Request: fold
Amino acid sequence: MSRPPSVDPLLRQTKLLRFISQKTLPRAQSFTEQQPRIQKCFLFPEGSGFTIDSLGTISTAAVFDFESETRSFSLVIKVVDPGGLFTAGNLKIFLINVNNKDPVLTCSLFNIENAILSVTSINSTLHNKINIILDEEIPIGKTVGVCQATDEDNLGDLTFELDPWNIYFAVDKGHGTVVTAARLDVERAGFARVQSFSIKACDSDQRCATIAVIADIHGINDNSPFCDRYLIRYTGKEVIANDTVVAKLLCHDLDDPPDTIHYAPSSGPVGSGQLFKQVPNAENFIQVAKELDYENPEMIAAGHVFEMMISVFDDLYLSHTVTVTIIVEIAPANDFSPVFKAAHYSFSVPETSGAFYKVGKVTAIDEDHPPNCVMYKITSGDIQVIQRFWIHPLSGMIELTTQPDYETVKQYNLTVEGVDCDRFHPRTAMTMVTVDVEDENDEAPVCTPSFYKAVIFDNVVAGTNINGFELNCHDRDSQDFEMRFEMVSGNENHHFGFDPTRGSNTPQLIVKNPFNFESGAELQQWYHLVVHIIDDNLKHSRATNPRTGTAIIDIYVTRVNTSPPPTTSSEQRKGLTIVYTAINTYTSSDWYIPFIFTLMAVFFAGLVSWVCFLLWRYGNMMGCCQKVAKEFSKPKPTGMKYIAGDRNQKEKIVIGNRNKKQGVLTETTVYETIFDGEAVDPVSGNVYEYNSRTGARKWKKKPPGHQKESLVNMYSPAEAHPPEEPISLKIPM
Reply:
């Protein structure tokens, strides 16, 4: 019995789905069903783009496009054996979208030439290259193109970029806007007039569309002309002939290509019918239109100087215009040298003269025109670091710049030079000027020491030189005998004075009047003396401007006899004040400096050792005390026998009780005081002795029944031991 052929159960039951990629070439697919008895296989519908052979292999017969054709196919497979029996099954085939198409790029690029904008559009499917023209100096960030891109696969966003990259341009990655990224300046060194770059639009699989762009940068008139010189001066001697070129203007333009430069007179005697004119076909040359004579009245009226201004421009805008000034001067021939009226000048100046003091005037004559046009200057003779003299360059007046000093320089020999007004070939003349500095009293006396301190006793005899002190005074502009000395303040009761008071520069400080503190009329012991040293002690004349120096002397008077201290209150006693007067003569190189430092180091080391010893000893004593205290703190039964030694060192047995009080030892230290003075108590009339250093006192004769007193330090004893029960303790040390 014959059976029909069978189809794979998977194909029959599940309607097997197969996916075929779009645009694939016809090729065999692995859909083979192994049926040894199959004779024929049929695939419906016919013309679907698929074929099947006798072995059951299904193949594509056409190219599939996901974007434009059917994206799924339903097929029926029929298998017939030779006996006519058959079977059938269904097959579902889907197309998968793959990234197999390039994006399409469309750009609208701008042409900007002479500030006129035009748009050129291009599509990457038609052309892949475009040329544009851009003006230089367009603003940074200026939009020069807008691009859009599409992709039929539609598998993701498209991005824009420049490849190759260009420093002067940039493209927005997401929107495709092309802008300028740097300044376009064709005049800059190294700048390329032709810039090239490519605009690319790419999908996620880097399938790209590209448009190449060549930008020709067009130069504009963005630079004003400039000239080698903006001030041209021409000087002619006596006569300037006709057609003489007095100025040549050399101007340039940095623009590429350079613009035409124009020259036009703006002011001055230049142009038609004027003294000067421009050379035909060479406007940058200025020449004389008629002869110019220095003696011509018209030239004299003009001052022999003519000024012209020429405007230079390459555009009608004012920002592109520069101005060149031309000055033409007619100068006389310099035939004569200046001559000073005197070959030697002598002036004198007081020593106290200040700045701007007019010393004197020098004058030189020049016969050339203009007459007597001479400039003056001091070339030598002002020898000090700070210049003392200044000469007015036009008038020749010599003035002081600062006060001179007769004691430093008594005479100056200045060399003054006169130069005529010919700038190109000047002629000069020389003269000597002697300036004598007149001596005046402008220096105050100076004494050493200027400040002095001394301590004296109140029993100094009048006429005594105080501590051998004397002033040593000098005056740079006065004689030593021209000084006198005055104490202007501090000399109460006129105790002090100088010997001599005038006619010497080394007076001694003496005591003129003795001190009398015992009467109570004098209480002041500190004297602050202000001494004036005046240089007006002239023998045959009187000083007009005397100068005064100052010295300070501080004197402290110490009383020799000190009254005994009062007895009413010990707090009001005045102690003895000992005043030491010393002069600091410290010198770091003296022998005693290292000796003192060595002694201090030894003392410090000994002090540290002593402190360490005390700490060690204190530690041992604390240990012993704690040990003894521990033994005494132990409880002892009543009636315990103690063996203690008495004063006679005899052993005896004592019945002790722990509750009995222990004795306290009392120590009394007696200090003997030496009483070196006696006085009578104004209240009681008794005589007492006192110590002049400490103020301690005692009655010389005490009333009956009282014991003799002494200065002692007492410590109050605590409750004493019962004499009948002494306790002796031996403390180990």
